[in-house]
Amino acid sequence: MADDLPVALIVAAFAWYLLGERRAAARHRGPRARPARQRALAFYAGLLTALIALSPPVDALTGKLFWAQMIQRLLLLTAAAPLIALARPWIVLWRAFPPWLRRPVARAVTRSPSCAPIRGLFRALARPPGAWLAFSINLVLWHVPGPNDLTLRNGYMHVLADSAFLLFGIFFWNQVTGSSRATSPPAYSRRIGYVASAMLTNLGLAIFLAFAQHPLYAPYAELASRPGGITALADQQIGAGVMWAAGDLPFAIALALLVQHWLTAHEATASRLLGELVAGSPDRGRPAPAGQPPVDGSGRPAAARPVPPAI
Amino acid sequence: MGHPEVYVILLPAVGAICEVITVFARKPLWGYRLVVGGMIGIFVLSVTVWMHHLYWSGANTPLDTPIMLDTELISIPTGLIFFALVGTLWRGRIRFDAPMLFAIAFGVNFLIGGVTGLYLADVPTDSEFHGDMFTVAHFHFTLVGGVVFGFLAALYYWFPKMTGRQLDPRLGKLHFWLFEIGFLGVFIPLFYAGLQGEPRWQAYVDPQFGTANLISSLFAIPIIASVAVLGYNILISWRSGVPAEANQWGGRTLEWMLPSPVPLVNFDRPVVVLAGPYDYGMGGPRLMGQPVVAGAAVDTAVVASPHPDEGSRADRARYGVLLLVLSWTMFGLAVYSAYIYLHALNTAGQFRPSSEPVPSTVGTVLITVASLVGAAVWTWGHLGKRSADDPRVRVGVTLGWLITLAGLAGSLVMFATLNYPAPVNAYASSMELFVFFHAWHLIIALIIGALVLGRLYRGRLAGREYTIECVGYWLWYTAVLAVVMMVLTLALS
Question: Does residue B300 contact residue B273 with C-beta atoms inside 8 Å?
């Protein structure tokens, strides 16, 4: 039962999404906009990645090889989760509910006092500090020998751990893709620091595992033999190497993309200012006389200028 | 182990090369975004790949494969940057001035260095090459052919801006050709010698590698000559060179809009940059303060005027000291974690041999207390931002300085009495490093403290009391460092 649960959940999410898409298509006839199609594709890709992670051969090997378990977790945390965060499937998934159910559920979730703790938790996770902490604590916690041994001995704990990796991963990458619905996206400089520091958590854990002198996880160490005939310590070190070398790449890609988007935002601001300046009156762009508020390209005092979008 | 630092020194050179190549090809940097993405990629990967220096150290064989793949991946962002540089040269109006020659040679040399690096990144080939001259030739092609050539391109490019004088262009070209020919001649034979199996780290050259080594040695002569040419060129150009123009090379970045050399307060008012740095052909760059004409190319616009005042000077001084403290903290963390790591590795009691005594507890505690009390008294003197003529400032600062001096004396006595016999082991050298590291910090504190004291006693500190505060930051940082090292010395031995 526990073995089939993840795949069943993924198939259910896929079917639910298709249902939501069909409901939306019934209301708007005609071709869909390109961003919507791209988001749908990102969602399918995310589900496919999760499916690869949670079905054989990867899933079948996780009981025998630490490095297979590491690949499974990294696929969920750093591949499936960012793709789903990019896809922002929440509205489509919500539409799949029948209309008569949506309104009372929405009211209960947003108004009911008994749901207040859930709302508070969600609000905390939808902000950068909460999402970062949840991501890091989750990542470290499941690699502590005790909790990790539980996931290896109990199928339901395994499902719980995988769900936590996917869920907290989605909350984490939501801040990076700027697709958090609850708050406006953080400034690019902050997002860069956010991703870089999370990468250091990942790298630090990998280095710790790589230099551990003994096998840390009893269920792996107790196996009589492992595929490939490697020792338990070698298995652990390969897992650490996977985390170290491959686990950091999604963060690197995210950093490079964030800087690119940052540049785009800068260029948009610069060309807007240039347009204002070139089309402006003759006194614009002159130095302000001493003692007066400085004047910028728009001719208004700098303090009164509308704040540009966070870049 | 120092792999990130290879890139720490390479990336600025790459930035300078991108700047020089666009200016001398009169074209925008082709694929600016590619270069930015490539630099980020190099930056992140460089942090993760240092384990490849330990392939053959016996550290951790199963880790090698993932690290090997990561190391080889670095060629992708580097390739993006090269692609962009070649794309920039393509159909440009290239001028072969000295900076451009060095920039192009950077490309040639670093390409050779990078491609041979692939063989060293690869575990099977590295097993053959890591101990021989191939490796020597490889890292000279990256660090000299890449970084030093990048540095020289930047030197020829910005020398007029720094000094207001041009470097003699003919001597510059002579320097370039001597250096490049000599450089290739020295290190290409070493690739050959390495492939034949000549080991590195050996003073004795086996006769079978004699020819390659002879060629290599002979080509060192042009390199020596080239360095002499550069030194002579700098000397005479700085003294009596042709005065440089404000915009010597027709660049469009901000520094070229100022006179050469740059005045002390470079821009007397903040500027906003409104056009890209690569819009060659849109008219000459405009100097500051000219009225803006509608429709013309606009580089900069003035937005505010005040000169930096004392308040912002204080902020900059604080910022500077805090940055200094931060960078030394990083260095210190490396020292402490190396100690903790070595201590943790040696569980069988070999870390501290019985022949090496633990430093005296009393001495260690006394030095640490001196450092702490010195910092506290110094800070007390300036408590509540008292003005410099308050007598308590004199008392506190003088006493704090003297207590810190006592701490230094204690450190030196400790250093002299440690007296570990050679050959030193990791424990003994860690202890000596700890004491030296702290003493060195105290010496810096005493020097900057003496400067402040001198001003105070000559009555020239009024209005600059923030310098006391800044020295205080360094003293507190030194005290925290002493506490950390005291705990490590006494608890982990």
Answer: yes
